[in-house]
């Protein structure tokens, strides 16, 4: 993305430099002139903070070389100059302020989850079409299988050919068409084919959306700024699921709910076209072995991906069968939609307060808390005797999801180079939505998610593991 004015001490023709900071100009968002910091020395970190903006459409990012605040045990505030200089004389310039337009990102996250409110009711739709619980389990297992096999390949291709936008738009169109076919079909073969095509087309949308929005922020505040914007996905998920339940309750027809899905996908497509990276990513050869090298050289990252995989075993269990279970207990679609609202009620503030959480807790502590609470949550589900009692359990989701996703994205975003950004988010989704759910599906006992969380919590509690 082009600059509104040249940056000091930057060659005008250098379009691949990481100093090529781009400021979106949209709506009432006005770019603020940049004064680049020139570190020539100092071993001190340069902390970054996100300032409250009088313009709600902008995120004003301020960098100060004079601030000496500690980043806290859970945050990594080491920042180096774009030229690679990490030591030398004291910094000359004192600050840089940039305005980043967040409206497209907020629209993208909210609309993507608002539109897929119908996805919460896959099991109910299959049940209404005459599929048994066993058949439903087999069909929904296609999602983790495709996340485990198809997603890594698509993420790698997106990085290799720099085709994230085109891949997202094609996936959105295919998913929308196949969703409509899945809902209106009555023949079992057609239902299965449309469902599998829709599932395959959707596996890459979430990772590419996360990657695109992560890269729109400066590296120094990428994690905390992304977490704030990501909280709007929770708004969309809660509101969208409840709206879907209302539409079905009044119409008795799932076809009407697909209109909501189409609207959400259209807004998501707008987001993917409007958002551009904060820094131009230098074109470089990309090989899949580069991802494996990062994993080999980073024990901390590998262990966190393993922990995320264990968390994924439980997410599959809840996403696929909770509503079937509530239906057996006499719960209505309205109650099911309300459970999703309570599900995100605690997730939203935790994502918005991510910067404070990273200052108070280490990534290891956050993941251990998530696993411990998740194990307790699974035990609570096992004791349900009445459908309405699930409302007492669902607020725990915010802790289990936020305390897993925040540290994982924090580590992923700084472990991989920009050229592998799509592969990085794709790898995390593969572990949580692919490998983990497949382990749960193939497990001989329903207690596997609980045992997996307990074992992985013990591993994370070993201090020497994640220094």
Automatic annotation (TrEMBL):
A single Gene Ontology CC annotation of this entry is: membrane
Name the Gene3D superfamilies on file: MFS general substrate transporter like domains
Keyword match Transmembrane helix: yes
- UniProt protein name: Major facilitator superfamily associated domain-containing protein
Q: Where is this region: Disordered?
A: 1-22
Q: Which organism is it from?
A: Leishmania tarentolae
Ranges in a coiled coil:
none
Cellular compartments annotated: Membrane
Q: A Pfam family for this UniProt protein? A: MFS_1_like
Q: Which UniProt keywords apply?
A: Membrane, Transmembrane, Transmembrane helix
Q: Any stretches that span the bilayer, and where are they? A: 106-125, 131-154, 166-185, 191-209, 229-248, 254-275, 301-323, 335-354, 390-412
Q: Which family does it belong to?
A: Belongs to the major facilitator superfamily. MFSD6 family.
Provide the Major facilitator superfamily associated domain boundaries: 121-439
Membrane disposition: Multi-pass membrane protein
């Amino acid at each position: 993305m082009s600059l509104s004015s040249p940056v000091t001490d930057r060659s005008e023709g250098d379009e691949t430099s990481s100093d090529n900071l781009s400021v979106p100009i949209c709506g009432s968002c006005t770019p603020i002139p940049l004064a680049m910091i020139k570190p020539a020395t100092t071993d001190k970190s340069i902390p970054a903070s996100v300032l409250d903006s009088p313009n709600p459409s902008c995120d004003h990012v301020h960098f100060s070389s004079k601030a000496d605040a500690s980043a806290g045990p859970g945050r990594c505030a080491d920042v180096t100059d774009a030229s690679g200089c990490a030591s030398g004389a004291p910094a000359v310039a004192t600050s840089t302020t940039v305005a980043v337009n967040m409206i497209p990102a907020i629209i993208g996250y909210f609309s993507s989850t608002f539109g897929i409110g119908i996805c919460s009711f896959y099991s109910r739709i299959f049940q209404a079409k005459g599929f048994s619980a066993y058949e439903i389990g087999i069909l929904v297992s296609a999602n983790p299988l495709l996340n485990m096999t198809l997603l890594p390949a698509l993420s790698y291709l997106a990085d290799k050919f720099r085709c994230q936008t085109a891949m997202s738009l094609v996936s959105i169109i295919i998913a929308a068409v196949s969703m409509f076919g899945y809902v209106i079909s009555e023949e079992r073969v057609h239902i299965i084919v449309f469902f599998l095509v829709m599932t395959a087309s959707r596996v890459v949308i979430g990772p590419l959306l996360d990657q695109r929005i992560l890269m729109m922020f400066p590296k120094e505040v990428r994690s905390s700024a992304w977490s704030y914007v990501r909280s709007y996905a929770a708004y969309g998920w809660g509101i969208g699921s409840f709206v879907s339940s209302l539409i079905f309750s009044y119409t008795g027809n799932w076809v009407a709910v697909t209109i909501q899905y189409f609207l959400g996908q259209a807004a998501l497509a707008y987001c993917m076209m409007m958002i551009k990276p904060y820094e131009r990513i230098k074109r470089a050869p990309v090989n899949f072995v580069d991802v494996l090298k990062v994993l080999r050289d980073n024990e901390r990252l590998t262990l966190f991906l393993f922990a995320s995989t264990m968390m994924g075993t439980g997410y599959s269990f809840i996403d696929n069968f909770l509503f079937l279970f509530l239906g057996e207990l006499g719960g209505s679609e309205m109650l099911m939609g309300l459970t999703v609202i309570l599900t995100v009620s605690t997730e939203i503030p935790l994502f918005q307060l991510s910067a404070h959480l990273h200052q108070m807790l280490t990534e290891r502590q956050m993941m251990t808390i998530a696993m411990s609470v998740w194990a307790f949550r699974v035990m609570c589900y096992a004791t349900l005797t009445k459908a309405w009692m699930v409302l007492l359990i669902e607020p725990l989701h915010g802790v289990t999801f936020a305390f897993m996703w925040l540290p994982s994205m924090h580590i992923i975003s700084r472990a991989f180079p920009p050229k592998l950004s799509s592969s990085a988010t794709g790898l995390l989704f593969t572990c949580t939505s692919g490998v983990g759910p497949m382990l749960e599906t193939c497990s001989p006992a329903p207690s596997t998610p609980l045992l997996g969380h307990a074992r992985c919590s013990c591993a994370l509690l070993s201090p020497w593991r994640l220094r």
